[in-house]
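User: Structure tokens for this complex, please. No commentary.
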Amino acid sequence: MAGNAVKIAVDGMGGDRGPRVAIDGAVMAANQSDYELVLVGREDIIKRELSRHRVIAGRISVVHASEIVGMEEAPVQALKKKKDSSIAVGMSLLHERKVDAFVSAGNTGAVVASATIQLGLLEGIKRAGIAITYPTIHGISLLMDVGANINVASEHLLQYAIMADAYAQCVLGKKRPAIGLLNIGEEESKGTDVMKEAYKLLRDSSLNFIGNVEGRDFFTGKADCIICDGFVGNIVLKMCESILETVVYLFQREMTANPISKIGALLCKPAMINIRRTTNYEEAGGAPLLGVDGHVIISHGASSAKAISSGVKAAGQAVESNINEHIVSAVASQAKPQEYKPFISNHTRPAKEAS
Amino acid sequence: MAGNAVKIAVDGMGGDRGPRVAIDGAVMAANQSDYELVLVGREDIIKRELSRHRVIAGRISVVHASEIVGMEEAPVQALKKKKDSSIAVGMSLLHERKVDAFVSAGNTGAVVASATIQLGLLEGIKRAGIAITYPTIHGISLLMDVGANINVASEHLLQYAIMADAYAQCVLGKKRPAIGLLNIGEEESKGTDVMKEAYKLLRDSSLNFIGNVEGRDFFTGKADCIICDGFVGNIVLKMCESILETVVYLFQREMTANPISKIGALLCKPAMINIRRTTNYEEAGGAPLLGVDGHVIISHGASSAKAISSGVKAAGQAVESNINEHIVSAVASQAKPQEYKPFISNHTRPAKEAS
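Assistant:
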């Protein structure tokens, strides 16, 4: 660690809702934890926002970065053009070990690209991936990758499983997490060539691989970690986020239809609030970008202050659990030659298959 | 049509729940419509099941097929081995125009393969795809493909959009249906090479293309038709099917937690039943396999008798709307040389991209 206390940099400029939310979240985290926070971004804006708060002395400092990567900017081009963006500066602090972790709700593509370029990948890792924890009816599960890498080879999926397994053990406290591969059927023969090859790699690994899981297994908690490529994972994640809104909308629409339902709805309100809490992505906090040489937490672009604060806590847990050391040693121990099979880098899907 | 009345063959052997459900569903449909039904499968079993029912005279006949394709069998191999399966025999009846449509809740892969081989594709169509209608907060939308083709080229996605558009107009009665491409971001630059190329083809088509849609747009009804490859579509579909179960489970768990909630839950019951009806996939009926030269409806493997009956109605609607003629003419009119661009058959995804 960079000092005695865990030091966490927070992107003060990131997110759809602007600097205020990021800064409010950082203040919340500073007052609720022992972490030292470093806010990165336009000093004038950050200081103006900070002046609205009281915070334990010495807990928050500011590092100036003059530029901002927009949420809709093309990641790589933006990073090339804006060398002094809050993302680039935050990542440099992490690379130089001036902080222990970096939390950003900014442009996800830019955070992934910047982390991969500035921090580099962990030893043995071929691709970084974003893991996200989400609620199921039997506790928290983890989905990986949700958008860092839409160009997957089977070996990447194996490594995602290894990283997800390490995270589920070290941070979520799960023993022998059950690992499932998200596919269109349970049988080994289902899916694309990459999926079939990944199935074999996972089956032959030392992980607790429970086979293919399907869309219907998503909320059952059947798997502690669900592994998929970043294209599928991103679509599935965004769908999950909209599900509760939809159900609440349908519920409210039905409830106002007649007076008896209205009374019922009032009596059910505490239960609904509990369901909302169970399924609230803001409580779950940020998503760790696993595989890069440093602790990076990506908060949702639409993050609230509470979500940023949860992201800071997730960053602290990652630092304290030494997750990256576990990943490096897990990848090394899986990489015994006799256990390895050549991975397929041919992404051509079979000519015709159905499920 | 094969005669005066619309004649619909139903696979009497298909589905997870065995012949009884298929036959009960066919009887239900026969008594609730003007269609003539032909039950295909083991005559002894079908006649035994039929003997439990009363049905309008002359409405149901039986065509014997001695073999059954199991739900878990590898499709192509099973069809090769079992020439006299209920799927193959039903498809032959359709090919010979002895019936106007075929409904099966059997092995989806086998139905798709059998239809493609026995019926052939419609003129100009490169791949068949399964379309499914599903409820959103603003009415019914259509998702295509949900599992016929996991090996998509951009031209297939364009053709899925053309077929979905025709179905939404002719069968669902939508005017100028809004077509969305399921992707990981709204920008044209998002997603795999196939997705980027499909975006251009759709933009340059005469369809009402509203651009990329994301997972979060799924239940909003923003798009009348959401277009995707069969891998993503299948995972998303199965997720949708499990969502309501999950919400009902969470609701019930919370409701039994305290007596006030219990009373509230009782008062809310009619509203919950309404929500269930709105989101019930059984009401929606079967999924048309579009692009083959004949009307084929795929019912869910877990179909109830009610779902089979809805599938028969969907088959009748497809026949009566002449959907296939509309598809052929729509594909032909889109195929003007100046509007066409070469499609990419290279499925390699870009090296690194994030959203």
